[in-house]
Amino acid sequence: MDAPAAGSLPSGPAASVALPVAGSAHRLRQISTPGRLAKQPERLEIAARSTGAERRMGPRMPHACRAVIKLDGVEHATTSIDLGHLGMMLERPPALLALGSVEAFVRLEGIGSFPARLVAVDVQTMSLKLLHPRDPASAERLTELVRQLDLANAAVIATAKKFADDLADVFAEALASHNISQAVLFSSELSPVAGTSPRQFIHPALDFFEDALPPIAARYYAPDKGIAYAVATDRNCYVPVHQPAYQQPQRLDDPRFTHSFSRHRRIYDDSWTLRAARFSPWPVVQAYRRDMPRGFGELVREVSAPVTVLGRRWGAAQIAYSMDLDD
């Protein structure tokens, strides 16, 4: 399947079927008890949205800027996560209680002010639909920013696709030379490593991954350019290899160190990784705060591209760019 142009949304029969499925799964997830059972409606919702049931009225692109949202006469300082012509996502201020659909007013630093409606609130985020009328100058600045973000996204998507192609080429070459079998490369078998926390796993192809993946990832990992990580994850959200700084042995007497610097051989089955690694048939650009000690870590723009080998989906190539604002 060809990828849609940057910023476009899927449509057609799949979208019309997927939309009610996604809505039902979303409602079910909201009332589910946290834990393993909540993962099933979450995965159903992600799958449906990836096949065409995108809730947003228009495309949004990651961008961090300081913002103030006014709700019921009270102003809350926050940060934007992504922006578009028709809506935006903001970080949920800690003091903000759960709200339904309500009118709001948003002021974006350097861009302007916009009337909006709050349409969704999550643990970390809040989504808003922009309303009319809008200040013409603010609307013009937002339009220009979105145009620039669209151009920038095209460039990073191309980089992620090259990363994915490099991975696919190495995998295909290894299969052709019989250095590894398809059964091993695509295996879903994971053996937990005793005594690890967070739990680490051994994959049947781990020796191959540890030899083949680091040189490829090193071409794309550039911390001096604001790249937080460049990793390959299989369709089960298993990351066998991470950057050297994040592949240190676990310290069971130091959970904070372990959670931060022992990030290899682990499963990251959050909604962002699930969407990129298993469900989306085209490159994905998304923003979120990393799961790190003390709650959530840095805000990143993650750009992922599917890795397909001999017509089979292996997983995704993921590159994350830091979005955190300076204090």
Structural class by helix and strand composition: alpha+beta
Task: Report the sheet with the most strands, covering strand number, pairing sense and barrel closure.
Answer: 6 strands, antiparallel, barrel
Strand order of the biggest β-sheet: 2-3-4-7-6-5
Helix content: 25-40%
Provide the domain count: 3
Oligomer: single chain
Distance between the termini: 43 Å
Identify the overall geometry.
Answer: elongated
Radius of gyration: 20 Å
The count of strands amounts to: 15
Question: Strand-and-helix sequence, N→C?
Answer: HHEEEEEEEHHEEHEEHEHEEE
Short description:
The protein has about 325 residues and is of the alpha+beta class. The protein has helices at about 15-30, 35-50, 135-175, 180-185, 205-220, 255-260, 270-280, and strands spanning about 60, 65-70, 75-85, 85-90, 100-110, 110-120, 125-130, 190, 200, 225-235, 240, 265, 285-290, 295-310, 310-320. The protein folds into 3 domains: about 1-55; about 60-135, predicted glycosyltransferase like domains (Thrombin, subunit H, Beta Barrel), CATH 2.40.10.220; about 145-320, Beta-Lactamase, CATH 3.30.450.20.
